[in-house]
User: Fold this.
Amino acid sequence: MQLDSRPAIVDCALYVGGVRQADELPLAELYERACERPDAFIWIGLHEPDPDQFAEIEKVFGLHPLAVEDALKPTPQRPKVERYEDVTFFVARTARYLPHAELTETSEVIDTGSVRMFLGSHFVVTVRHGEAGELRSARLDLEANPAQLAGGPWAVLHAILDRIVDAYLDIVAAIDTDVQALEAAVFRRDSGTTVEHVYQLKRELMEFRTAAVPLQRPLQTLLDRRSFALAKEIRRYFRDVNDHQTRVVEQVANHDDILNSILQARLAQVTIDQNDDMRKIASWAALAALQTAIAGVYGMNFVFMPELHWRYGYFYALALMFGSGLLLYRALRRNGWL
Assistant:
């Protein structure tokens, strides 16, 4: 197929009966060939194209300008499915887990992107933004299974969504490991875990939640017979994806609840530690105040004070200061203030 070879276009091919064809034709002619057979379609994959790179595709397939505008925007969009006459526009958010040696206040745990897809009776156009959720491996897997690829554009949509949701499941499993490690560290006094560590993981979880959880609604819309008249077999596959997505939503909610509990526990520990510090400061202040009081009494310059002229008064004052301080110190220790 003769098509602009600029980097935005990752791959483009004609499939007939689930088998990739080696035709080298202009896009318009290739699309005409696809429309001549009920089991043929074109799949074009792009990565962050600009309007000029997308202009020919928009023209050949007759894509709606509003959908094209949404597809080209680099900013994240909420997952959705929309119908524009005979073309379905689907938006899904992709995500990947970034391995890290340890969680810090600035650790990047989740990286997100998006895939915007146009589906017609004889074409699929996928527009990917971000580094997460590459689709080349999904295309190769489908090409290795012609029977599944023969299902046409809806089979491609299922394969992509199945890949995205499986990545979600891998992420929630990895986050679960992080949450367990953080939970164990919070209750170890010498772990060095701070509120910032807990908050950072919660922030990354919220980023993942924003990307993953909203996908449930468009999946349910696809399964609604009143909205999409899908074949029974492909509907069964989408139902399986929706079941996996439900597990993702439940796991994200569980992790969020646990992190809230960990955060509250850590804040309570911080409050207790501050109270302990204040009690220690108050205890040492009391010891200093006691010595100051005794020294203040013996520092008075009154004439009629027998202790001032006593031969052993100095040693008596020192003994009194030391003895009273020792008694107060033991009392504070016994009550847990020191």
About this structure: The first helix runs from residue 27 to 35. Confidence is low (pLDDT under 50) at residues 1-6.
